[in-house]
Specification:
The complex is a heterodimer of chains A (390) and B (88). Chain A has 390 residues and is α+β, with helices and mostly antiparallel strands. Chain A has 10 helices and 18 strands. Chain B has one domain: Glutaredoxin. The chains are: A alpha+beta (390), B alpha+beta (88). The complex binds FE2/S2 (inorganic) cluster.
Chain lengths: 390, 88
């Protein structure tokens, strides 16, 4: 396993308490590419709605800031534990939290205060760890659990708010809620069915399942699941636009063809060009009404879409950050989010015939959209993105 | 009416240029074909007919019916040509 660089795939999916219009849990993460390190916080604010949202946000932000300022993780969380106020009415802490600090070598440090214990899955089974416990000097009911261990490739860590483990609480079938045991059984099953499921997808499955436990599927607390998956990076190459020098089409087509990872083509002309160079056929889906042209298919390529309209729409979806719509742009979004390292090969050919008034405009839009995609994918979705104008 | 085994192929270009110039409205063409003709026709899409880059044809969107090119295509034009093809 030497010389293999690994990737920390971390993501969180949340569902609001029914009837609330804001999340009472907060998940924040920050990647430090130079150190090959990721820090993430999942915080659960007392109650639900806007008050919980502010509390959870404050806690998560403060922890990340402390660490960014160079404080040691234990120190940073200790300060938080000692200073978090108590709710005067309910006499419990304003928020609970889990902090994860992980690097590319798999070394992980975890601090938990009040949230359900995390689950460590390895080869489809649970690995349990003994925490080092620190009790608060000021609040005897506050206790931090500290862990430090090393992840092996393909290991996963699952964190959740109590909205997950207590889902279904009080129902006939789940008197005591789904509980950590129920979650573990679920994880075992899911990981058996799909060993390489992405963090985002697994988190979504957990949240969905927790929601299913609730009567009428109405969440009675905020539900959040965060997953960390330590694995080989998933690569994606997006080819959009014909290369500037037509005589180099073949060369780029070969690079595309040999790429070790998933592949997408965005652009009709680009698709035709690659099909020609690689001697493949394009089959199109039946036209059906929609705001975007339908996808087409090419053997060995994971997705073929139209160019700038689809890219622009995808950017819009990524900005919204909501559910993934079922259209070509949604498919591209899905592919992007499921990848860790994304390469864009952006062709810059200005066309042979200059009559088409749309062409120069298209080229500019394409460059622009791709640059914006790079920005949002790397900053907000913590992907490693690389642009190449060809 | 002759009922040949081979269907009449309608190919709609859904490349960016054509789509923006009006092909988006042609996507529902299949549902607009009179029911009696529907079984005789197959509607397909094309990723780009490469005509948008050719100065001879400045008239996107493009549709081909059994290879016959229709420029500045719209539902009415396409249905007219189809009618002619079927009824000779
Ligand atoms: S987009 Fe229709 S011919 Fe190119």
């Amino acid at each position: 396993m030497v010389d293999e660089s690994f990737f920390i795939d971390i993501d969180c999916v949340q569902e609001k308490k029914h009837g609330q219009n804001t999340f009472g849990d907060c998940f924040m993460s920050k990647r430090y590419p130079d150190e090959g390190r990721v820090i993430a916080v999942l915080s659960d604010g007392l109650g639900s709605g806007i008050k919980a949202n502010i509390l959870a946000n404050m806690t998560a932000t403060m922890i990340l800031r402390f660490i960014a300022a160079g404080h040691d993780l234990t120190k940073a969380t200790e300060i938080i534990m000692e200073t978090l106020p108590i709710c005067q009415v309910r006499k419990i802490s304003y928020s609970t939290f889990s902090v994860i600090d992980c690097d590319d070598s798999g070394l992980v440090k975890i601090v938990e205060e009040g949230n359900p214990d995390f689950v460590h899955m390895r080869n489809g089974e649970v690995v349990e760890h003994e925490p080092e416990i620190r009790t608060s000097k000021k609040f005897t009911n506050r206790r931090m659990h500290l862990y430090k261990f090393k992840l092996e490739p393909e290991d996963r860590l699952i964190f959740c708010s109590d909205g997950v483990t207590q889902s279904g609480l009080g129902t006939e079938q789940y008197h005591l809620g789904w509980r950590r045991e129920g979650l573990i059984d679920f994880l075992r099953d899911e990981l058996k069915t799909d060993k390489t499921v992405s963090s985002r997808h697994l988190a979504r499955l957990i949240v969905k399942e927790a929601q299913l436990k609730e009567p009428g599927r109405l969440a009675k607390d905020d539900i959040s699941a965060a997953v960390l998956y330590f694995r080989k990076p998933r690569k994606l190459l997006v080819f959009t636009g014909p290369p500037y020098h037509a005589e180099r089409d073949e060369e780029y087509a070969a690079i595309f063809n040999d790429f070790p990872g998933k592949k997408a083509i965005c652009g009709g002309t680009t698709a035709n060009l690659l099909a020609r160079c690689l001697n493949k056929t394009i089959t199109t889906e039946r036209p059906r009404p929609g705001a975007l042209p339908a996808c087409s298919h090419m053997e060995g390529v994971d997705l073929v879409t139209e160019g700038i309209l689809t890219l622009t729409k995808t950017l819009e979806y990524l900005n919204e950050g909501g559910r993934i719509p079922d259209d070509p742009a949604g498919k591209l979004m899905e592919l992007l989010l499921d990848s860790d390292c994304i390469d864009f090969m952006v062709g810059t050919r200005l066309n042979e015939a200059h009559y088409d008034p749309l062409l120069p405009v298209q080229l500019e839009i394409r460059k622009n959209v791709v640059k914006q995609l790079e920005k949002i994918l790397s900053e907000r979705y913590i992907k490693k993105v690389h642009l190449q104008f060809i | 009416m002759e009922n040949s085994a081979k269907k009449i192929e309608i190919e709609i270009c859904l490349g960016t240029t054509c789509f923006v110039m009006g092909a988006s409205k042609l996507q529902e063409l299949e549902t607009l074909i009179p029911p009696k003709y529907r079984s005789l026709v197959e509607v397909k899409a094309n990723t780009c007919m490469d005509l948008c880059k050719n100065a001879t044809y400045m008239k996107a969107p493009f549709v081909k019916i059994d290879g016959e090119l229709i420029t500045e295509a719209n539902v009415e034009k396409v249905l007219n040509v189809l009618e002619r093809k079927i009824n000779g």
